[in-house]
Amino acid sequence: MIQINSHTGFQKLRTCLVGSCYPPEFFDFIPNARMRNIFERIAIETEEDYLKLIRILTNHGVECLRPKFEHWGMYLYEDHNGIERYIRPPMQPRDDMITIGNKLYVAHLRYGEGYTDPWDWVVDQVPETNKIDRRDDVEVWQKVSPPCITRVGKDLYFDFASHDPHFTRKQYFYLLQNVIIPELFPDYRIHYVDKGGHSDAVFFSRSAWLTGHLPASTSIRPHLSGLGSLTGAS
């Protein structure tokens, strides 16, 4: 089983989810050989980059978990015009999942009825008491953008950017204030960041940068002007 213990983005990393592009054989359906070779080369070079990242992480004692593919049909979906399209490959798990405290929150990994999600084998290893799986909650969690949530101990910073581009800032703020936060994060101190996008790379710890971990009390500085500094993170 996978145990979740994630209180900041600065603590020692022990396990990391590393995504994956479509493999080269995925593009066998392209009849034009020249065009097919271009996509195959992109897939090969992308995987080479992933493997370089994995080597760096494993050399520092980090366990790396990858998505598992079953068949290409799991990536097909029908858009609002009734046209079949391929969903993006599972390259960026942080777009769809986030760990806060001792829980894994799964927001919007969806590959169609009857199809296995490439990350299911990981999610299934997390105890039921330590995960909140909301992949079927289209009205709420399909709007949530995990990269727009920053955890610093008992302080959570939410950016106003929604995963749904058609969802207004006002609508998203109402959803956060009245549904998501009261239900899931009643014990956290909530703050809002108006960056307008991903905020998971906004904050950094001076101490963590030097020592590789976050002490019990340290100074966290946002990498944006006008936000001020946070102190006493745990």
Give the SSE layout.
Blueprint: E1 15-17, H1 33-59, E2 63-65, E3 76-78, E4 84-86, E5 97-100, E6 103-106, H2 120-123, E7 131-133, E8 149-152, E9 155-159, H3 169-184, E10 189-193, E11 203-205, H4 206-211, E12 219-222, E13 230-231
Parallel strand pairs: 1-2, 6-7, 9-10
Antiparallel strand pairs: 3-4, 5-6, 8-9, 11-12, 12-13
Mean pLDDT: 78
The residue ranges in which pLDDT falls below 50 over 5 or more consecutive positions are 208-234
Give the tally of structural domains: 1
Strand order of the largest sheet: 5-6-7
Cα-atom Rg, whole angstroms? 19 Å
Compressed to H and E, one letter per element, the order equals EHEEEEEHEEEHEEHEE
Number of strands: 13
Tell me what portion of residues adopts beta-strand conformation.
15-25%
Q: Helix tally? A: 4
Shape: globular
Query: CA-to-CA gap between the ends?
Result: 26 Å
User: Structural class given helices, strands, pairing?
Assistant: alpha/beta
Strand count, sense and closure of the main sheet? 3 strands, mixed
